[in-house]
Amino acid sequence: GKELSSRNSLTYFTDEMKDTSRDHFEIEMNLRKGLELNQFTLYYQPQIKASTGMVSGFEALVRWNHPEIGLVAPDVFIPLAESTGFIVPLGEWIIEQSIRKMSELEQTGAENIMISVNISPRQFIHENLPEMIFRTLALYNVAPSRLCLEITESVAMEENTLVIERLNLFSEKGIRLSIDDFGTGFSAFVYLQDYPVHEIKIDREFIKVLTDNKKSKALVKTIIDLAGNLELSVIAEGVETPAQLDLLRELGCDYFQGYLISRPLPSDELEKWMNQFEY
Ligand code: C2E
Ligand code: MG
Ligand code: MG
Ligand code: MG
């Protein structure tokens, strides 16, 4: 598959984005045009159940296929999309594509596979989000229980009635809720005790150093135990080495994803990858 654009072009792009509000405006115009011209694309990274080695699902990850720069990573444009509101139409496109891909996977016989979609804070509180999600699930005949929404702690921590109502609504309808990048923010994880959250996702920063020292191991063990005590699932992201995986297993981690298994895959390579995948 294609790689993300080179560091040079990314740096060029990022520098440009840091510039002035006029540049921001221009880039936002380009983002909007990019959506019209179909320049966005979703990649999918497999998630694996640690106890069985079976594929449990895929995380949808967006890229911008810019005509001059090439494939642009989401870290570069999602923050801008979030601050300008462009994340709302882009997010709707992402949700629709992911759910459609899920219905395609089901038609090829893949059973009990989940699709995880990242939802940014502004997107999460947008008034149309629940209706849009339910309508799209119905349109493609996909059960809500096949969809997992990855939200960040900054969303979950907000003592906001809208947020709580939404979490409850999604949960009642059977949609799974995962806390992405767990432990990297200002973790006031008191929200875990009464929010309908189903999964904690351990951030790659913890996994990177997991096998380096005792303290890193203790931290990850603490997160996994916390999830277990609260009867939540726990998934590790950014697993790159067999040593990391062995340790995560030993600590009781339920699911994992990372380059060790696969990089995020272009949409049209998923089925082939699933057929070839051996644990
Ligand atoms: P995230 O949701 O925490 O996604 C995990 C990131 O880690 C992804 O980067 C993924 O490609 C990368 N990754 C996975 N396994 C490994 C590994 O083993 N090693 C390393 N070094 N990296 C790994 P990506 O795709 O560049 O996405 C970055 C962030 O952009 C995501 O972090 C998420 O916050 C955001 N993002 C991506 N797609 C979307 C989207 O569709 N909507 C929204 N709102 N945000 C998105
Ligand atoms: Mg994520
Ligand atoms: Mg994450
Ligand atoms: Mg992350």
UniProtKB/TrEMBL annotation:
Protein name: Uncharacterized protein
Gene Ontology MF terms: cyclic-guanylate-specific phosphodiesterase activity
Domain EAL: residue ranges: 24-278
